[in-house]
Amino acid sequence: MSRPTKPEPLDDMLPEYDFSQGVRGKHHQAYRAGTNVVHLDDDVAAAFADSVAVNEALRLLMKLARERVPARRSRSQKPRVVASDRKRRG
């Protein structure tokens, strides 16, 4: 027969923890500079349920941008001149 286990307390913060000298946001700038975390403004964050929704929206935006904007030509590729362009150029 197994012994009954004590339920874990909901609050795991012990009384001896002292945060009175803590500084809010102390490492914020360093963390932000060294990670890929994106901080959304409150109005933008309110439009999305979670990070999955944000990623889906950004992927859709990237897809639309690729479809709308033609791929860049490398410098070695010269623009193709068609007959109608020759007439306009004179």
Write the layout of secondary structure elements.
Layout: H1 28-33, H2 42-45, H3 51-68, H4 83-89
Task: Please explain how this structure is put together.
With 90 residues, the chain is mostly helical. It has a domain at 38-71. 39% of the residues lie in helices and 0% in strands. It is built from 4 helices and no strands. The protein has helices spanning 28-33, 42-45, 51-68, 83-89. It starts with 27 loop residues before the first helix and ends with a helix.
Keywords:
90 residues, mainly alpha, 4 helices, 0% strand
Assign a percent range to the helix content: 25-40%
Mean pLDDT: 80
Q: Calculate Rg over CA atoms.
A: 28 Å
Unreliable spans: none
Give me the strand/helix succession.
HHHH
How many H/I helices? 4
Q: Which band does the percent of strand residues land in?
A: under 5%
What kind of sheet is the major sheet?
none
